[in-house]
Fold Outer membrane protein HopS (BabA).
Amino acid sequence: MLREGNNNCSSKATGVSKQDGGTKTETKTIDGKSVTTTISSKVVNSGASSNTSHVSYTEITNKLDGVPNSAQALLAQASTLINTINSACPFFSVTNNSSPNAPKMEPTKGKLCGFTEEISAIQKMITDAQELVNQTSVINNHEQSTPIGNNNGKPFNPFTDASFAQGMLANASAQAKMLNLAHQVGQTINPENLTGNFKNFVTGFLATCNNKSTAGTNGTQGSAPGTVTTQTFASGCAYVGQTITNLENSIAHFGTQEQQIEQAENIADTLVNFKSRYGELGNTYNSITTALSSIPNAQSLQNVVSKKNNPYSPQGIETNYYLNQNTYNQIQTINQELGRNPFRKVGIVSSQTNNGAMNGIGIQVGYKQFFGQKRKWGARYYGFFDYNHAFIKSSFFNSASDVWTYGFGADALYNFINDKATNFLGKNNKLSVGLFGGIALAGTSWLNSEYVNLATVNNVYNAKMNVANFQFLFNMGVRMNLARPKKKGSDHVAQHGIELGLKIPTINTNYYSFMGAELKYRRLYSVYLNYVFAY
């Protein structure tokens, strides 16, 4: 509805001969058919019986004759319509129904070109749809007339049938683009993607075509397809709905299998570039064999690829390349394990030493004796078992490690305080304080959290792993011994003691070596506190 005094519907804006009773006729050829567009302009006075608003306005009618029922023609009409609304920018005024279920127009009056978001979205949808339809002509232009590769056709040769492959690629690319554009067209006005006034416009008005008016005038909202009136904005879905239907019909025979179309596009691309890709295949084969030959102790991987000459193959592709699937699967497993292998950064660090504090517990069982009248010198012989745990962290290798040390040792004992009478912890006890020192012959076993990964690589590349080795240790410290008095002359003396000692292992454990890199462990020293019970 156009209010009095608004000049957007003047004869200059619409192109008609005069504003009241003027007409303009244009003829265009769309899809080979002549389409006549008749624009009529009529001033409706405020006192006219049909004017329930009692405000004078200009009614513009756009009538189309001979419109072809095709997607391209409908899109051309839609484009003309939305562009005319945007450029003419007519004034509108509507009355919303008070019913709570009726759609509400927001705002209720103003200029149509103020709906910038809605107009922009519709223009994009029309542009996408037009490009979609254009892609159908690409497929028609590359339709294959000569059968190739089937029972009645000639064998396909990528060196001589490049044009066939190029047409196949053009078709597949067009189909992929069509599916993408069709999706965009639908999503542009999908209410689930919209908010605010635009969503209200689409659901309440754009989707309402020639239905009963919500303004309470007993008339219709919108207009019949093909006729544009003052309610044209509400009949947009007549064009949109029919356009989408035509688009769906145009691409229905392509199906909706997007993945299959993508695969076809990839295959076509390979065929178009087959000659160069075939050359790349040969270069890749040479690179693989060269790389494998340089890997030490990897004879089992040498046959991952192979080639044979087949004189019966088509010209240009006599050399056939083969992949040993079992060996390839083995390489895939190796790659996964190498990703977790601590030496994947080998070469970055030439040498590195890292330390970590260890905590543990130990036990030793043996026999001791003292010599001479004063019994200041003595010796002990024992077996021992130590367990320690540590987390060792470095810039390229982190692991939790456990170490077991087990073996036999012998220490010399010397008391500089010997059997001194004391009432400490009881009457008539004897206190001895002294030193000890000796050696131990043992074995050392290491286990860290990377053992499984290291072992996997070891099986493939014959890397060296040693979790155990011989160990030689020095042992020294201070001791205190408290002997209780005998109850009978034949009873052994119950003794309790405390020792503060230091063990020093001297031999590294060559735990792991891989492609020139080595991992060595050694417990540098161990400070311990022992409780000793003797009898």
